[in-house]
Amino acid sequence: MAPGLLDLVHLTTWAVCAVIKLPQLVAVLRAGSAWGLSVSSLLLELTGLLVFLRYHIYYGYPLETYLEFPVVIAQDVILLSCIMHFSGKVRRACFYALVYWVGWYMITLQKWIIDLAMNLCTLVSAASRLVQLQHLWETKDARQASALTWGMSVYASAARIITTLMTTNDNAVLIRFIVMLILNIWVTATILHYRKIKKTD
Fold first, then answer.
1. pTM for the complete prediction?
2. Residues 163, 55: contact at Cβ < 8 Å?
3. Is residue 139 within 8 Å of residue 36, measured between CB atoms?
């Protein structure tokens, strides 16, 4: 892939990720409710993103291969705060913040810990999607779930497969993005399915 094309893929991924959670956040704020969204799913996603970011920093990978993750993490924290507010679980946020802060430092105490955490990160990130799918299946309601947010996640995963192959060629990272691509497509399709059902009712 030509360097110019690789730069374009990086740039479009950053642009998509800069606003990736905004449609979801707008839907939650407009509804004044977090119905149809899973706090557990968001916590698992946040865990996976933090481990993934820490892994890239630890191994000194090029900034352009993970630049979007701090922005997505910040958006997840804001979204999680809104969901916890609407769910009446604001006090738990401080506990979660402490756990994440301690974990951020603990996973780099030894090389084997960060490597293990990265491998588990794929499972945790996959679990976040599966928990969201289960929540959608149980509620059969996708009103507050943003198909646009999940569609942008599909693009970001696909783009990062390309950039990983062209830059770091790290198999653990590549496997994570392939798994995320498949599950992001599944969540998007499920949201669209339940929206179609609601429209026909």
1. 0.85
2. no
3. yes
Structure tokens belonging to residue 132: 């969201």
Q: What pLDDT does residue 134 have?
A: 93
Q: What does the alpha-carbon distance between residue 108 and residue 54 come to, in Å, rounded to a whole number?
A: 8
Smallest Cα–Cα separation from 117: which of 62, 59, 182?
59
Q: In whole angstroms, what is the distance from residue 35 CA to residue 86 CA? A: 9
Residue owning tokens 């969540």: 187
Q: What is the pLDDT of residues 109-138, one digit of tens each?
A: 999 999 999 999 999 999 999 999 998 999
Q: 38: pLDDT confidence band, cut at 50, 70 and 90?
A: confident
User: From CA 25, how far away is CA 21, in angstroms rounded?
Assistant: 6
3-state secondary structure the chain: CCHHHHHHHHHHHHHHHHCCCHHHHHHHHHHCCCCCCCHHHHHHHHHHHHHHHHHHHHCCCCHHHCCHHHHHHHHHHHHHHHHHHHHCCCCHHHHHHHHHHHHHHHCCCCHHHHHHHHHHHHHHHHHHHHHHHHHHHHHCCCCCCCHHHHHHHHHHHHHHHHHHHHCCCCHHHHHHHHHHHHHHHHHHHHHHHHHHHHHHC
107, 113 contact by CB (below 8 A): yes
Evaluate the CA torsion angle 125, 130, 133, 138 in order and state its sign.
Answer: negative
